[in-house]
Specification:
By secondary structure, this protein is of the alpha+beta class. It is about 35% helix and about 20% strand. It has 20 helices and 20 strands. It has a 20-stranded antiparallel β-sheet, sandwiched between helices.
Length: about 625
């Protein structure tokens, strides 16, 4: 009897172990094809789902005070997108919402294209249902039956032993979801009409594999069935990014194959170089090259959530020797970008970047020259006009020296709370800019000259004396009002202090800064939450740092949105499709939901390998 029990226990243990081994679906990078251009992955959907429900954003959205706004938004979303999707696919989206339990990956691949043919990019979806494998199988079977009953001509194709169901799409599928494409036409030729595609899908154990072509799913099927095929994990660039960026189990991560993308763009130009064109055009490859983006080998991001808060890292692999254009500009020197003592504690936003002004100007000129044959001459013409205007009052005026040649390597800005409640005041908070310059007076004269090209200046106006410093008033072009009323006059105030050019359209914040030397200003840098968040980012010595008091900026946002609704106007930032969804009149008062907001910080740095940008948002203490 004992031997029988032992034998039974051994068999049971073996079967359980075998079941677990079968359920271990490889991570995305071990399945995706080598021609993957970009992918986004959630390694563990079940864990993310649990964590998300405790996140400040989710709690805010689910708060009872948000229910009227929330319910109307969701209803519009269902009408606009969910209902058409269910109609076209013959399924209930709700039946599939709980199926992602393991990884969820969406990838885009080259799919055999050479960049200028009619082959669409490959799209691949991987969804691991884990313990809900049977539910996935049932739902897929029901889906196939509905399509078959509806008269769709489905077929089955075997790929590496897996039976893939192939669903042909009609031109009417997803008509309510995707924007309509205008047929491309050439002189003397019939307009090209996009051919409806196909969807391939199959289930392997607990994993759903879906793609838009056999080529995109073939490597995945090979890996799952014991075959050998190269994968993204074999890419040296990805391997380096994974080691540096994807450790410690991020909740979400993504990767972009910059080298693969730009190689494809370059290939498309080379293959199409002999094509006749009656009109000269600037190729995408030339644009990317002029901007310096072809030096980007890869880009990756990872988001981690824990009880301390959310931590986002974004990294661009761009070796120093290959940098030009934007990448060279963004490669900031490792210098202190911390908050100076004169920034007041009530500042709701602050940012500082140790950007080299002279290097930036030099790279911008190269980019302009590279983007278009006449770009450099056009720029020189504008500069010549500005010089001729400035030399009427100062024969030695030269905007290249007086403005661009004066720039040093420090730029900072901060914003204070809005004092009023009108929509105009809420949309124009007091902001100040400090720019490190070698000769502030020459720089101010150059700015006056540039402003005079679009709006006449009062040459007889003298600068105002304030605490031993001069404040210049520069007349700007009047700003149009959203209500269609008379344009409102605007002025830019310019002064100099502590090696900085000081600029603001709000005279009070400018005077406050000039007054800050008396030591009466309580500094922002003593904010305990800011200090702690800065430490999470590794300090502010990388040349870039920023802070936002989200609790206060969201207060202003709520006021502005509710005022917009009351004024029966629509924020231009939202496309027309969404305007009916966002009924700002249904937003609650801010105070009941203020507890979900706190602060956010960011920092950036560069080294010989590339550029890194980090964002840390602490969990609000009111939710702990």
């Amino acid at each position: 009897m004992t031997k029988k029990l032992l034998r039974l226990a051994t068999v049971t243990t073996f079967l359980a172990a075998t079941s677990l081994l079968r359920a271990a679906i490889p991570p995305a990078e071990n399945l995706l094809p080598t021609d993957t251009i970009a992918f986004f992955a959630v390694p563990d959907c079940a864990a993310v789902r649990v964590a998300a429900k405790q996140s400040p954003g989710w709690l805010f959205w689910a708060d009872p005070a948000m229910k009227p706004f929330h319910d109307k938004f969701v209803a519009k979303l269902n009408d606009q997108y969910v209902a058409p999707l269910e109609r076209d696919l013959g399924v209930k989206v709700a039946d599939f919402m709980d199926l992602p339990q393991g990884q969820l990956t969406l990838a885009v691949t080259v799919n055999g294209s050479n960049g200028h043919d009619d082959i669409p990019a490959g799209v691949l979806l991987l969804l691991d249902a884990k313990g809900k494998s049977d539910s996935l199988k049932t739902n897929l079977a029901a889906l196939v039956k509905k399509w078959t009953d509806a008269g769709r001509a489905l077929r089955t194709e075997k790929i590496h032993g897996l039976a893939f169901t192939v669903v042909p799409l009609s031109s009417n599928d997803f008509a309510g979801l995707l924007p309509k494409k205008t047929p491309v036409s050439e002189i003397g030729k019939e307009p090209k009409v996009d051919k409806p595609g196909e969807i391939y899908f199959a289930q392997f154990e607990s994993l759903l594999i879906a793609g838009n072509s056999p080529r995109v799913i073939e490597p995945v099927a090979a890996h799952l069935t014991g075959g050998s095929a190269p994968a993204v994990a074999d890419n040296a660039l990805f391997a380096a990014d994974k080691l540096a960026q994807f450790r410690e189990n991020p909740e979400y991560y993504g990767w972009f194959n910059g080298k693969g993308f730009f190689d494809l763009i370059t290939q498309s130009v080379a293959d199409n170089s002999g094509a006749d064109s009656p009109m000269p055009s600037v190729s995408a490859a030339k644009i990317f090259g002029a901007l310096g983006l072809t030096g980007l080998k890869s880009a990756s991001f990872a988001l981690r959530e824990n009880h301390d808060g959310s931590y986002l890292t974004f990294h661009m692999t761009a070796p120093e020797a290959d940098r030009a254009g934007l990448l060279k500009i963004l490669a900031i020197a490792p210098k202190d970008a911390g908050v100076p003592p004169f920034v007041p504690a009530e500042a709701v936003k602050f940012s500082r970047v140790r950007l080299d002004g002279k290097k930036t100007w030099a790279e911008l000129q190269k980019m302009i020259a590279g983007l278009a044959p006449g770009g450099e001459s056009s720029l020189n013409s504008v500069i010549a006009v500005a010089n001729s205007i400035g030399q009427k009052t100062n024969p030695a005026f030269d905007i290249r020296n007086d403005l661009f040649g004066n720039l040093n390597d420090d730029l900072m800005t901060w914003q204070k709370p809005v004092a009023g409640n009108s929509l105009a005041e809420l949309n124009s908070p007091p902001i100040i800019f400090l720019i490190a310059v070698a000769n502030p007076d020459a720089t101010i004269a150059a700015i006056k000259t540039i402003a005079g090209m679009s709006n006449p200046q009062n040459a007889s106006a003298e600068p105002r004396e304030f605490l031993g410093r001069k404040i210049h008033t520069i007349t700007l072009k009047p700003a149009a009002t959203s209500a269609g009323g008379a344009p409102q006059p605007r002025s830019l105030y310019a002064s100099a202090s502590g090696g900085y050019l000081v600029l603001s359209t709000d005279i009070s914040i400018e005077e406050e800064y000039l007054r800050s030397a008396d030591g009466s200003t309580k500094p922002l840098r003593e904010n305990a939450g800011l200090t702690d968040a800065q430490q999470h980012l590794g300090g502010a010595g990388g040349g870039l740092f920023g802070y936002e008091n989200q609790r206060e900026t969201m207060r202003v946002t709520f006021k502005a949105l509710k005022n917009t609704a009351a004024a029966d106007t629509t924020l231009k930032m939202f496309p027309p499709t969404f305007r009916a969804w966002l009924d700002f009149s249904l937003l609650p008062d801010y105070e009941p939901v203020a507890k979900y907001f706190y602060l956010s910080t960011f920092a950036g740095s560069a080294n010989a390998d590339g550029l890194t940008f980090k964002v840390f948002t602490p969990r609000p203490p009111t939710l702990n």
